[in-house]
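User
Take a look at the entry that follows and flag anything odd:
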Amino acid sequence: MLSGLTSSDLTERLAFGALSEGRWRKHLKSLRERLGEAHQQVGQRLSQMGFEIFNEPKAGMYLWARHPDLNDSAALSQQAATAGLMLGPGHLFLVEPRSTGWLRFNVAFSLDPRVAAFIAPQIDEQVRAG
């Protein structure tokens, strides 16, 4: 790579084959279907835990949700990080950061049972403390 101007012949041939023989379209179709299913499942799980879903689209990589008993998603996100999970606190996506209960969930990773197992007790604790 240091002395050449292009990638290897093998990777170029693989990329050409995937694009010209339609394998890429089949792969994208499969990914879209799996992502759509994940989106629906994560939305259902969050709703069952009492979360409000913002503008429930039928597909996409992310889902925005908030729980009425959660005022600061940053605190929940920090607790999740110590448990080895990453949650997207809403304040990171605001023009002027402020406390918010909104979270951005990556639907592909939010199917991991550890996410619901972590969030449910945290929400219960917020309700008891509130």
In short: The two ends are 58 Å apart (CA to CA). The chain has four helices and four strands.
